[in-house]
Request: fold
Amino acid sequence: MARTTTRLKNGGPTGPRTALYVRVSTKNGRQTTKNQERELRAVAQRHGWEIVSVFRDRMSGTNDQRPGLLALLKAVQRKEFDRVAVWSTDRLGRSMPQLVRVLETLKAKGLALYDHRNSLDTSTPMGQAFYYMSGIFAEIERQMIVERIHAGLKRAKAEGKRLGRPTLSPEIETRVKDQLAGKIPVRKIALALNIAPGSVMRIKKKMTTG
Reply:
């Protein structure tokens, strides 16, 4: 489940009211939005922006129904701030249509978008032009990743390799069951045995359903 919106209450206004949007792609415990947020807070402090809201998501950028993003767009409609700051535009979306929709929503309400990684600010004509270009590059990059994955799958199939979820040895599966029976957390088991948490969850589900 993606994290919900976090609202902050600051003192008197010190500059443009700013909302931060931060996102990581998965629920993996090793991924965190803290680094993105820390960098954006430093930028806001340097520019004298007042941070009034922070919106967070922990899911793929290809998902249009991210709770944090939806809450952000609703706040945009109410004009609760003057600009949105992101670590990179690909945090908002992984396709050009997604990015354009968000940008058009911001433009319609007279809000600016700041992209930290590319030092872009859509409040300037040059920044707006480069924003569109960065969105195109993000889409190209995503398509290249997908193409590489598809090429890899085709190559593996041609070589007769079995595709799908990796199977665990009977010994590992037994150890997983023993640790689950001992009430050890799924992630701790996965880390100790160097296997995916999903593999542990599948075994746990089998144990539960009999």
Observations:
- The longest strand covers residues 50-58.
- The mean pLDDT is 80.
- DSSP finds seven helices and six strands in the chain.
